Structure formats: structure tokens, C-alpha cells
Amino acid sequence: MLLQRIQHAVRHRTPRLCALCELPLTAWDHHWCASCLTYFQSTPRCTRCGLSMPFPTDRCGTCLQSPPLWNALYCLGDYAYPLAPMIHQIKYGRQFWLIPPLAALLAQVIPSPAPLLLPVPLHWRRYLYRGFNQSDLLAHHLSQALSVSYQTKLLQRIRSTPPQEGLHKNEREQNLRKAFMLRNRPSAKHIAIVDDVVTTGSTISQLCQLLLEVGVEYIDIYCLCRTPEYHNQ
């Protein structure tokens, strides 16, 4: 993407400042100072659903009773500061230079990467209006950081739906009914779906169902943020 290349060139020709506190950095290839980098330290989570927990666990109580369709979810943190404003800058401010360093941080918390990454697709009307798909950009840079493949057109959004923001879980599920299709059968049995934010999981559940129906055996979710459970009520 041309704008992304321009942003990269400009940042390499200007003084390097921390993306959060704006203090000078000691190395040209850093994006955050040592102090601000602590914001991205991992916190205890349920490996299955990705929600914050008092201690790390493979399955929380909710997942034991009603597990999601995916097998594991890995994220950088909750949808809160500093990740929430960064995602807002990417989606609405076109600050694409933030994606590669965030993808590099996300790669560090994924222990056994899936051999194939699939970004959550946008409907073509939304893509024309916005001009980019942030999930696709994230999947591209994450695939490079993990040294795995990614396909951008295997999953397709075939029905334009209203934005998910502000909808409750049941409303989100109804909103997304029959909104996606799988264009071809994937070659890998272990696949990761990539998105910027996972809220109730309604979108990725629809995509998981499509993949499971064609024989995919293990599904990961890789995202920048997991919205805390109290926001999903």
C-alpha cells in the first residue's frame, strides 16, 4: 500500500519518538520506549476464549460448559489503553505504520503458529468506502513475523451488514447470519483467523463454522485485542 510505504519512509527520516509518550528513542528500529513497552506485557488469560483471568488456564468455567468453536485465542491485551486508541488510529486515522510493530509483538505470544492465516473479510462495498482491510494488513505482517502463509480471498463476505458496534451478542449473531462464504477448501488442517478486535466472537464463530464443515481440525484466533467480558453484555 502506497500510504504505508510513505509513512514508513517519513518515519525513517524524522527523529524517532515513542509512539505513546513521545520521548526520544535510543534505537531507530524501536517504536516504544522501555517504560511504555510494559503496557504490552502478557496478563493471565483463558487460552480457549482469550478472556482475562485471575490466573492462566487452558479452559475457564464458561469454556468448560460451552466452549467456543475455535481451539485457542491469542491477543496482545484487552480493548483498552493503549491498544484501543492505536486500533482507532489505524482504522480511522490510517496510521498503518503501527501494524508491523504490533504484529511483531503479537507473534511473540503465539507458541505454535498455524501454517495458514486467514483475515476476517470485508464486504466489497465497505472495502471501497474504507480503501483497506485492517485485518488483512495485520494478517500480512503477522504471516511475515511467524514465517507462515496467508490467503486473503479464501474467506469472502457476501452480505453487507450494519456495523457490529453497539449490538448485543444475540443481535450480532443475527446480523451476521449467512454473511460469509468459503470460496475454496483450504489445504491446511490447522488454520488461524486474524482480526483486529474480538468482542463477542460472533464474527469468528461464523467463519469457524465454515471451516469446520470442510474438515479443518484446529482453529486459532489471532487478534490485537480481546474485549473484556463486561463490555459484551
From TrEMBL:
Q: To which protein family does this belong?
A: Belongs to the ComF/GntX family.
Phylogenetic classification of the source organism = Bacteria, Pseudomonadati, Pseudomonadota, Gammaproteobacteria, Vibrionales
User: Pfam families in the record, alphabetically?
Assistant: Pribosyltran
Quote the InterPro entries the UniProt record gives: ComF/GntX_DNA_util-trans, PRTase-like, PRTase_dom
Q: What is this protein called?
A: DNA utilization protein GntX
> Can you give the residue ranges of the Phosphoribosyltransferase domain?
138-229
